[in-house]
Amino acid sequence: MVLISFCRWSIFVGLFIVVAASVAAYIFAPKGENQTIWRSSLILAFAACYIMWALTLLAQLHPLIVPRRTDARPEGGFSSSQPAAAF
Amino acid sequence: MARPDTLFRSAEMSLVQLYVPTEIGRETVSALGEVGLMQFRDLNEETSAFQRTFTKEIRRLDNVERQLRFFAAQMEKNNISVRPVPGNGQLAAAPSSAEIDTLNQRAEAMEARIIQLNNSYETLQKRWVELIEYRWVLREAGGFFDRAHHQADDIRRGSTDEPTAPLLEDIENLPQTPGAGQGELSFQTMNIGFVSGVIPRERIAAFERILWRTLRGNLYMNQSEIEEPMTDPATGEDVHKNVFVIFAHGKEILSKIRKISESLGADLYSVDEDANLRRDQLLEVNNRISDLRSVLDNTKNTLDAELRMIANDLAGWMVVIKKEKAVYQTLNRFNYDAARKYLVAEGWLPKSALPLIQNTLREVTDQARIQVPSIMNELKTSRTPPTYIKTNKFTEGFQTIINAYGTAKYQEVNPGLATIVTFPFLFAVMFGDIGHGFLMALAAAAMIYYEKNLIGKKVQELFDMAFFGRYIMLLMGVFSIYTGFIYNDIFSKPVTLFESAWEWPEHFEKGQPIEATKKDGYVYPFGIDWNWHPAENNLLFTNSYKMKLSIIMGWAHMTYSLCLSQYNHRFFRSRIDTIGNFIPGMLFLQSIFGYLVMCMIYKWTVDWVAIGKPAPSLLNMLINMFLSPGTIEDQLYPGQKPIQIILTLIAAVCIPWMLLLKPLWLRHEHNKHRAQGYRGIGEVSRVSALGDDDDDHLNSRPSEDSDAVGHAFLAEELHEEEEFDFSEEMIHQVIHTIEFCLNCVSHTASYLRLWALSLAHAQLSAVLWTMTIGLAFGPTGTLGVIMTVVLFAMWFTLTIAILVVMEGTSAMLHSLRLHWVEAMSKFFIGDGVPFEPFSFTLLLEEESAG
C-alpha cells in the first residue's frame, strides 16, 4: 500500500513534481523564436493541471457526505451500471 | 535590439526614412513587397488620388487587369479552366518593367483578336440559327399549304361575305379531299397571301390573341412546334420556338400581320407556295447549313486554341499585374527630394528586420548597377508605432481570439501568450469527458495531419472555422481528456483506474439503502472516486466540488491576469500605476476572494466529522464578514475574528486609496512642473503682454523652404503633450475604481459558469446514454442485436452532434467570454493600431479570400 503512505503528503509531492517539471520545461524548451511560447505554455499547463488535480484530491480528503445507494444487489456484486466493487 | 521579438509583447518598431534613387524606385518597392515587413506611411495625404505621380501607370495596369478578367470571363463561357499558379503566386519575383510592357502589348493584341473572333463567331452563329429556322419553316410549311388549300374557299368567303360567320370551321370536321379540283388552284389566283416565320413558344398565345383581335378573325393560322431548342447566339440560352404560317386575304392585312409578328420577336422567312420550288429551297438551305457548320467549327476551334493558350499563363499574369499595381500604389505614397533624384519614403518596420531591409536595398542597387545607393536612416519619433505580433500557424488562431477583441497597445503584454493554455483549459473544465475530448482531439489531429492539402481551400463555413482553429481544438481536446480523467467521466461512465477509497457493506437486503464507508487514511489518488458515480447523492457531491473548483479557478485566473497588469506598469515605467492601481487592487481582491479561497482549502483539510464540529458555511461567513464584521457563527479556525476584521478594513481602505492617490499625485506632479516653468505647447500664457507674439512663435512650423522639401513632413513629428485636466483624470479614476471593485465580485460570480456548464455537460451525456444505448443492454437474442446496432448508431450520432459539436461550441463561447471580459479587463489596454505591412503574400491572400 504505497499509495496510502504516499497520500498524506501527496499534495506536496505533486507540487514538487510540477515545479521540477516546470523548471525542466524552462531549461529544456527548444531554442529559437518559439522558446517563450514553449516555456510559458508548458509551465502554465502544468500549473493548471496541478491546481485541478490538487483541488480534486483535497475535496475527497475528508468528505462530509458518503456515497449512498439503494440499487445494489446482495450477492454477485452490484447492478450492471456499476463496476466490480470487490478488490 | 535588446530583446528578441516574442509573443509576450508586440515587436519593437522603428520609423525609418528611405532615400531611393528614382530609377530603381519600382524595383526597390517590389523587393520590399516580397519581404513584406514594412508599412509605408502616406506622405501625400493632402494630394487626391488623381494628382499623384503614378496615376497614369495605375490606370494602364487597371486596363490590363480588365483585359485579363475579360479573358477569364471568355474562358468560363467556353468551359476552359485556368491553370492555377503553383503555391498561390509565390512565383517569379518582381518582373522587369520591360516584361510588364510586353505583357501589356500582348494583352492588347489578344483582346482585339478574341473580340474579333467572338464577333465573327456570333455572326456566324446567328446565320446558322436563321438557316436552321428557315429549314424548319420550309419543312413544316408543306403540310400547312396542303391543308390550307382545302380551306382556301372558306378564308375568302369568311373575310368578304359575312363578318359574323365563323371564319373557320374545325379542320378535323371537314372531309379530307386531297387532290380535289379547288385545292389545286394557286393562292395567288384566289388573292390569298401568307406570312411564314418562327416565334418563341411562350409568345405564341399572346401572338394569337393580338392577331385575332386586330384582324377580327380574318386569318387562317397554322403552327407547329420545333422539337429541338434553338440557341440564342447573343445570350447562349436555349429557346423553344414554333413555326407558323398565317394565311390571310388582302395586302393591308398581310402587312399588318408582318408588323405584328416582327414586333413580337418573330423571324419571318419567305416560302414559296409551289412544292417543287420549296424542295429546291430546302436543298439549298441544307447545303448552306453544312457549309456554315464547317466554318463555325473552324472559328470555334481557333477561339478555343487561342483561349487555351492564354489559360496556361493567365493566373500568373494576374498575379504579376496585381503585384505591379500594388507597387505603383505604394510608390504614390512616396515623396521626391528637392532635386527629384531621390524618392523619399517613410515607414514602420520591426527593429529586428532592419538588417534584412538594408540587405534588400543593397541587393536591388547592386543588381541595377547604379552608383548611387539607397539610403535608410532611422527616425526618432514620438508617434505611437503600430502593433506587430508575429505569429505562426500554431499561435495564429489564439492571437485571432485576442485581435477579435482589440489590437493590443504598442508593446503592452499580449494576452495571446497566456491564452494558448488558459483558453483550452477553461474550455476543458466545462467540457470534461475523456471520450468527448478524445473525439475532438482526433478531429483536430486529422485536420492537422492533412493541413497541407486543406490549407487555402474553401469547403464550408463551419468547417473552415474549425480548420482555422485546428490547433486550438487540439489543445481543447487534450485538456478535455485530462479534465475527463479528473471528473472520471468517459461518455458519462467512470474509469476504475485505482482502488476506490469507499467500501460497501458486505451484507444487506435487496432494495435496502446502503452507505459506503471510507477506508482509513486513503484518498483516491487521481480524480473523483468512481464509487461516487452510481451513488444516489453523486450530484450533491460533484455540485459542491465543482462550485468550489470553479471559484478557485476563477480566482487564480483573475489574480494571474492582474499580475500581468503589473508587467505593463513596470514596462511603461508608471510607478504611480503600481502604487495607485495595482497594489490596492491586488489587496482588495485577495482580502476578499483570496481569503475565501484559503478558507475553502482549509475547510477541506479539516476532518469535521472526526472532531465532531459543524462544518461552517463559507458563503455565510463571507457575507457576515462585511455585513456584520466581528460576528462568527461557526468557527472555522481559532483567531478568525480579528483576522476577518483586519481583512475587511484592508479592503475598505483600498477603495479610497485607489480612488484618490493617482489623480492627486498626477496633479501634484503637474503643478511641480508648472512651477518650474514648463508648459504644454498648446497652452497660451495670458500673463505676458506680448502674448500674441509668443503664440505665433510657438505655433509656427519650422520654415519649409529653408530646408529640403523632403524634411517638411518632419514638422508633424512635433511632440504633442496632452494637456492635464484634473477633473478628467478624477472622473476616469472614479470609474476605474467603481468598476474594479464591483467587477471583483461579479467576475468571481461569473466564473461559476464553469460549474454550471460542467454539471450540465455531465448530466446531458448521462441522460443520452440511458436514453439510447443504455436501453439496448436489457434484451437478448436477435432483438438485442438489432437494438444494440440501432441504438449505438443513434447514441454515437447524437454524441457527436449534440455533446461534441453543440456543447463544445457553447463551452468555447463561454471560455471566450471569460477571457475577453473577466481576464482581459484586468490588464488589457487595447488601443493599438495594427501593423499592416506592404506584402505581396498578404495582398494575394486577401484577394483569394475576398
Automatic annotation (TrEMBL), chain A:
GO BP field: vacuolar acidification
Annotated keywords: Hydrogen ion transport, Ion transport, Membrane, Transmembrane, Transmembrane helix, Transport
Listed GO MF terms: proton-transporting ATPase activity, rotational mechanism
Residues that span the membrane, as ranges: 9-29, 41-59
Compartment(s) of residence: Endomembrane system
InterPro entries according to UniProt: ATPase_V0-cplx_e1/e2_su
One GO CC term, this protein: vacuolar proton-transporting V-type ATPase, V0 domain
One Pfam family linked to the record: ATP_synt_H
Membrane topology: Multi-pass membrane protein
Family named by the database record: Belongs to the V-ATPase e1/e2 subunit family.
Protein name per UniProt: Uncharacterized protein
UniProtKB/TrEMBL annotation, chain B:
Keywords recorded for this protein, A-Z: Coiled coil, Hydrogen ion transport, Ion transport, Membrane, Transmembrane, Transmembrane helix, Transport
Gene Ontology molecular functions: ATPase binding; proton-transporting ATPase activity, rotational mechanism
Function: Essential component of the vacuolar proton pump (V-ATPase), a multimeric enzyme that catalyzes the translocation of protons across the membranes. Required for assembly and activity of the V-ATPase.
Protein's name according to its UniProt entry: V-type proton ATPase subunit a
Cellular compartments per GO CC: fungal-type vacuole membrane; vacuolar proton-transporting V-type ATPase, V0 domain
GO biological process: vacuolar acidification
Short name of one Pfam family: V_ATPase_I
Transmembrane region(s): 425-450, 462-487, 549-567, 579-604, 643-665, 754-777, 783-806
Lineage: Eukaryota, Fungi, Dikarya, Ascomycota, Pezizomycotina
Entry membrane topology: Multi-pass membrane protein
Family assignment from sequence similarity: Belongs to the V-ATPase 116 kDa subunit family.
Coiled coil (UniProt feature): 100-127
Subcellular location, record wording: Membrane
Organism field: Ascodesmis nigricans
